[in-house]
């Protein structure tokens, strides 16, 4: 443990300071902006008119949309209850329209609009002219607007998304029979990209095999040097030109480690793919624990030296090799098994419409529990999440859309599926995080013809070492297995002993017993016993059947498998919504708000205690966590999760014992520490009936349960529990993970309210309703109609989603119980700040703030004197409440005696 780093954190917190925030970055249409005068990415998310229905003629430039709602993107068309499974979301056409006046300075430039994702099939018009029709929900749409724009006057972009069921494009399966939800809308970012008529193309805007944009790959990698190959596709829409292509590669510290210049002549209205290569000496290599990213600067100049295009890409120098029974080799060296989870992108209430910071926090929350591989179930993820995986050192299994469906009747379905294969590789080929290409629809009976073409197209798009395709290793696909590099299975496959194995989904215990009941599927509010059961199931699940011992795919099974199985992903990281089933999937180690369950700490026990200094926001520190609440309904056994060597458990000041967190009979590096039959509710009652609420040292020593984490014989961390007492107050936490909210009109910050006792213990068994209000440069998402505000406490928690305005500044969040009273818990307030966006926002109008409910005691027009008197009265009421509560406590003590 780095004690100096830990001490610095404590000192900074004591003096009200913060550690300097790591500046995470998000790509824009596949690049990072350097000089906006040459190539600029303009944030086009703010100020779209929207209506959730079909409207005839809404593509026309003069259509009257004045009564439509104004929204900011990403937008999912609607807000939904926490439990939104079973197809409760809207399916059908909707419309978005944006009015804008292009800057006169853009005359003569190329102007592209880049949609990161529109759900379903969609049509896009500019000034009444149809410019693109698209079929598919998860890939960018890159459209040239240059010839359609009118400068000096208002322009209108109209978009008609339609998320209705449609068998003709992937995933193809109707939502009501699908194990995830479509949701809808323009649910990812939109960018306006401007550059000159000589420019580096976008790989999805040009149909070039292994071409378009920038393509980087590596060869001859050692610790001493690596050969870097860079292909740059340049378009020239002007006169023939002699050009210079400049490359500069810089390391994390900004040191230039290589540079290169190449001359090329491109004819008028033509393009050229320029192939370049150079050697980097003593390269900083990318790996999960050391995710070094280099900056590749690409600059196009004319023969006079004028810059015509410039931007940068992030490059992670690494090679992967899968050697079947020998396992995974990263940068030429054997690498340990990878362990992680699948990820669906939907979030509580907002569906798929997550802003970039929420995507980043998703990746960060998983990385902070030690995960180093993610499977993108069952579609390609938002670029912000992919950027985070590159940055945080998380391998990724990239998947095309699909789930248990193949359209045999319409050939267009396979054509579009194969187009998705090419698009996925073109889009993500440069990412160091990409581990496998899942180019088949999940759990689907696809024809052999498709297997041949899908693997062939992948090889064509990535014709270099390090490309690995993957499919299921099931009997009905035995003919197709030979075409793929990797198989999904529990362990080595007898018929394919030389193939590498990956476990795509493990942990979920589905046998269709009474319609998908499973020990893995636990809603957090069900309590500690179900949560403990879920965690222990994920660790190891065995049972007897017909006289034979059966083992379900678990953490124990994964670590105990042969070297052929080089990685595995849990189903699933977060609770998420489903189409065909009315219950959400509750098997996540975190809920839909990304708040942890006990199983979260099972995974965190695999986090090392040092060695992650190069991973942003991730501290490899010792921890210990007691998965027990000391309630009258708590189990007798006490389970503790830790990444320390040993755990010492003390109860009521008496030592229970010391146990190791390792087991010579278990292949898992850390095991749950279980102290059996040590908790008795009568002891908790007797030890706490007097003096409770003082929270002084004497009481703490005599009343709590304490776990101490031990490394090399010394206590390095601890965690305490006590029986939660009377509800005293609400407590608020801004769950920003150290990622500063952006004032871009789209960012969402999670604020969690906890109901706690006098000492801060959370009252997990409470179910009051909590009402949130927001002041300043933010707005509360949702209200009564969508069951968001007020909100019932679940497991002692209520969560507010706060959307940033377009002005940087202070945001104040207040939480209070719905019904006031002399003995009601005290309200809570917390503040946080937003910072200005990194890109220019282009808009002409803003959404109106939703009308918030004003609590009765808060008078809208009250004077400063009245406000002062009201505050004083509240303080008097609070003191009176404390007095009464203490008197009640004394009476109870007397009665017990």
Automatic annotation (TrEMBL):
<dbReference type="GO" id="GO:0004553">
    <property type="term" value="F:hydrolase activity, hydrolyzing O-glycosyl compounds"/>
</dbReference>
<dbReference type="InterPro" id="IPR006102">
    <property type="entry name" value="Ig-like_GH2"/>
</dbReference>
<feature type="coiled-coil region">
    <location>
        <begin position="859"/>
        <end position="893"/>
    </location>
</feature>
<feature type="domain" description="Glycoside hydrolase family 2 immunoglobulin-like beta-sandwich">
    <location>
        <begin position="220"/>
        <end position="318"/>
    </location>
</feature>
<protein>
    <submittedName>
        <fullName>Glycoside hydrolase family 2 protein</fullName>
    </submittedName>
</protein>
<keyword id="KW-0378">Hydrolase</keyword>
<feature type="domain" description="Glycoside hydrolase family 2 catalytic">
    <location>
        <begin position="326"/>
        <end position="599"/>
    </location>
</feature>
<feature type="domain" description="Glycoside hydrolase family 2">
    <location>
        <begin position="742"/>
        <end position="816"/>
    </location>
</feature>
<keyword id="KW-0732">Signal</keyword>
<feature type="domain" description="Glycosyl hydrolases family 2 sugar binding">
    <location>
        <begin position="81"/>
        <end position="194"/>
    </location>
</feature>
<dbReference type="InterPro" id="IPR006104">
    <property type="entry name" value="Glyco_hydro_2_N"/>
</dbReference>
<dbReference type="InterPro" id="IPR008979">
    <property type="entry name" value="Galactose-bd-like_sf"/>
</dbReference>
<dbReference type="InterPro" id="IPR040605">
    <property type="entry name" value="Glyco_hydro2_dom5"/>
</dbReference>
<dbReference type="Pfam" id="PF00703">
    <property type="entry name" value="Glyco_hydro_2"/>
</dbReference>
<dbReference type="InterPro" id="IPR051913">
    <property type="entry name" value="GH2_Domain-Containing"/>
</dbReference>
<dbReference type="InterPro" id="IPR006103">
    <property type="entry name" value="Glyco_hydro_2_cat"/>
</dbReference>
<dbReference type="InterPro" id="IPR036156">
    <property type="entry name" value="Beta-gal/glucu_dom_sf"/>
</dbReference>
<dbReference type="GO" id="GO:0005975">
    <property type="term" value="P:carbohydrate metabolic process"/>
</dbReference>
<dbReference type="InterPro" id="IPR013783">
    <property type="entry name" value="Ig-like_fold"/>
</dbReference>
<feature type="signal peptide">
    <location>
        <begin position="1"/>
        <end position="23"/>
    </location>
</feature>
<keyword id="KW-0175">Coiled coil</keyword>
<dbReference type="Pfam" id="PF02837">
    <property type="entry name" value="Glyco_hydro_2_N"/>
</dbReference>
<dbReference type="Pfam" id="PF02836">
    <property type="entry name" value="Glyco_hydro_2_C"/>
</dbReference>
<dbReference type="InterPro" id="IPR017853">
    <property type="entry name" value="GH"/>
</dbReference>
<keyword id="KW-0326">Glycosidase</keyword>
<comment type="similarity">
    <text>Belongs to the glycosyl hydrolase 2 family.</text>
</comment>
<dbReference type="Pfam" id="PF18565">
    <property type="entry name" value="Glyco_hydro2_C5"/>
</dbReference>
């Amino acid at each position: 443990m780095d004690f100096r780093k830990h001490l610095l954190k404590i000192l900074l917190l004591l003096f009200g300071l913060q550690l300097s925030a790591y500046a995470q970055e998000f790509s824009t249409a596949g690049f990072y902006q350097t000089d906006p005068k040459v190539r600029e990415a303009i944030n086009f998310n703010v100020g779209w008119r929207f209506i959730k229905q079909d409207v005839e003629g809404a593509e026309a430039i003069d259509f009257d949309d004045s009564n439509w709602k104004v929204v900011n993107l990403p937008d999912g068309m609607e807000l939904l209850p926490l439990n939104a499974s079973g197809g409760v979301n809207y399916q059908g056409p909707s419309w978005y329209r944006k009015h804008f006046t292009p800057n006169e300075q853009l005359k003569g430039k190329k102007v592209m609009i880049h949609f990161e994702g529109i759900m379903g099939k969609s049509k896009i018009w500019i000034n009444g002219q149809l410019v693109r029709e698209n079929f598919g929900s998860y890939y960018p749409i890159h459209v040239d607007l240059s010839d359609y724009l009118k400068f000096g006057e208002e322009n209108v972009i109209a978009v008609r998304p339609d998320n209705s069921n449609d068998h003709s494009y992937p995933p193809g399966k109707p939502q009501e029979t699908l194990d995830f939800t479509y949701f809808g809308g323009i649910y990812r970012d939109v960018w306006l990209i401007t550059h000159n008529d000589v420019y580096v193309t976008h790989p999805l805007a040009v149909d070039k095999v292994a071409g378009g944009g920038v393509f980087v790959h590596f060869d001859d990698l050692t610790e001493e040097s690596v050969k870097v190959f860079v292909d740059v596709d340049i378009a020239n829409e002007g006169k023939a030109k002699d050009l210079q292509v400049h490359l500069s590669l810089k390391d994390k510290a900004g040191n230039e480690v290589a540079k290169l210049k190449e001359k090329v002549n491109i004819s008028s209205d033509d393009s050229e793919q320029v192939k370049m290569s150079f050697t980097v000496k003593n390269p900083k290599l990318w790996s999960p624990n050391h995710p070094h990213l280099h900056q590749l600067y690409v600059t196009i100049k004319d023969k006079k030296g004028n810059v015509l295009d410039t931007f940068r890409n992030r490059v992670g120098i690494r090679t992967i090799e899968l050697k079947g029974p020998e396992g995974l080799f990263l940068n030429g060296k054997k690498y340990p098994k990878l362990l992680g989870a699948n990820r669906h992108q939907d979030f509580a209430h907002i569906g798929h419409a997550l802003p970039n910071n929420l995507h980043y926090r998703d990746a960060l929350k998983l990385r902070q529990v030690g995960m180093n591989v993610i499977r993108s179930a069952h579609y390609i993820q938002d670029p912000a999440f992919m950027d985070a995986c590159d940055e945080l050192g998380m391998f990724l299994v990239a998947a095309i859309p699909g789930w248990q469906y193949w359209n045999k009747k319409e050939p267009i379905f396979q054509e579009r599926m194969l187009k998705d294969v090419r698009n996925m590789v073109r889009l993500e080929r440069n990412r160091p995080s990409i581990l496998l290409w899942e180019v088949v629809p999940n759990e689907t009976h696809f024809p052999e013809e498709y297997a041949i073409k899908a693997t062939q197209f992948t090889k064509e798009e990535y014709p270099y070492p390090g490309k690995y395709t993957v499919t299921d290793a099931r009997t009905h696909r035995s003919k197709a297995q030979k075409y793929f590099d990797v198989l999904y299975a529990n362990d080595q496959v007898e018929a394919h002993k030389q193939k590498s194995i990956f476990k795509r989904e493990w942990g979920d215990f589905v046998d269709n017993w009474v319609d998908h009941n499973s020990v893995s599927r636990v809603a957090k509010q069900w309590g500690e016993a179900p949560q403990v059961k879920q965690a222990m199931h994920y660790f190891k699940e065995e049972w007897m059947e017909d006289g034979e011992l059966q083992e379900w795919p678990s953490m124990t099974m994964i670590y105990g498998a042969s070297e052929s199985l080089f990685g595995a992903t849990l189903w699933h990281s977060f609770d998420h919504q489903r189409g065909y089933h009315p219950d959400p999937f509750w098997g996540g180690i975190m809920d839909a708000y990304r708040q942890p369950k006990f199983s979260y700490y099972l995974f965190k026990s695999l986090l090392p205690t040092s060695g992650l200094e190069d991973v942003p926001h991730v501290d490899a520190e010792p921890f210990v966590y007691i998965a027990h609440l000391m309630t009258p309904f708590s189990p007798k056994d006490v389970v503790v999760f830790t990444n320390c060597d040993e755990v010492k458990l003390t109860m009521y000041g008496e030592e229970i014992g010391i146990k190791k967190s390792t087991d010579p009979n278990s292949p898992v590096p850390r095991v749950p520490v279980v102290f059996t039959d040590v908790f008795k509710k009568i002891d908790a009652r007797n030890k706490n009936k007097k003096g409770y609420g003082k929270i002084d040292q004497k009481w703490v020593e005599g009343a709590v349960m304490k776990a101490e984490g031990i490394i090399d014989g010394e206590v390095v961390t601890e965690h305490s529990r006590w029986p939660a007492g009377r509800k005293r107050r609400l407590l608020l936490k801004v769950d920003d993970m150290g990622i500063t909210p952006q004032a871009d009109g789209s960012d969402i910050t999670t604020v969690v309210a906890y109901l706690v006792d006098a000492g801060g213990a959370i009252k997990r068994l409470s179910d009051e309703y909590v009402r949130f209000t927001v002041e300043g440069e933010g707005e509360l998402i949702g209200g009564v109609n969508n069951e968001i505000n007020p909100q019932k406490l679940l497991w002692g928690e209520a969560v507010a989603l706060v959307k940033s305005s377009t002005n940087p500044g202070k945001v104040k969040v207040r939480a209070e119980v719905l019904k006031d009273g002399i003995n009601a818990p005290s309200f809570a307030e917390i503040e946080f700040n937003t910072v200005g966006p990194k890109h220019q926002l282009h808009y002409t109008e803003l959404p109106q703030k939703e009308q918030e409910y004003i609590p009765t005691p808060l008078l809208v027009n009250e004077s400063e004197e009245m406000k002062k008197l009201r505050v004083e009265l509240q303080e008097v009421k609070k003191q009176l409440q404390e007095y009464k509560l203490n008197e009640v406590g004394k009476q109870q003590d007397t009665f017990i005696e």
